[in-house]
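Box 3.1 A note on notation
Throughout this textbook, protein chains are presented in two layers. The first layer is the amino acid sequence; the second is a token string describing backbone geometry. Keep the layers aligned when reading.
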Amino acid sequence: MPNSRTEAIAGGAVFGALASAISYMHLSLPFLPLPYLEFQFAEIAIVMAVILYGPLAGSLASFEYLIILEMLGQFAPFGPLLAFMGVASIVIGMALGRYLLYNTSRKRGVWSYAAISILIASAIRVPLLTIANLAYFYLVAPGFISIASSELSSFLGNIAISSFVLVLVFTALFNVIQSLISIIPATAASGYIFARWNFYSIDRYWLPSFIAMESRRENSISDS
């Protein structure tokens, strides 16, 4: 049977703590055009929470991640809030991805799910964080946009495009790549684990139960 609400809450708590620990250890990579942006590997833990225990666990893990980052004071309060917006976009994208995949005729495999989740998560994340960054630049740190423009100019050289526009474009590119970094490794790892230990035959975990349901449906159609 699918995991219970209690298991989802416990799973969310565990993976939220894991994401916070990864962030605390600074396991990240700078985005070279704008070095103040960093690819966060902590988001992979949030994605694993969704894959195993569903959107409820992913939501709880995201809130725990936000609270712990605020307590740790890592660019608080705005840095953790932006990070939360990013992971929340991914959780929503993954939930909508499963819903859309379930209601289409596409083959419902792990990678089909990952692809549609990345598209939806990026479609939510890019405009949301673009607006959030604009608000931060104008309301909180109006001088920061000149610093970002200077860093981007030193990376690209002289280009006949507004540096402000380029900052927004590269920030959007960063968020798309972050979605890829968050979802693809978690999908690869979980797909291997599910296949290696035959988790697809266990209707306990969120994504495997969904894929197993599709497999049984295809088998019933072929047998009829």
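The longest helix spans residues 163-196. DSSP finds eight helices and two strands in the chain.
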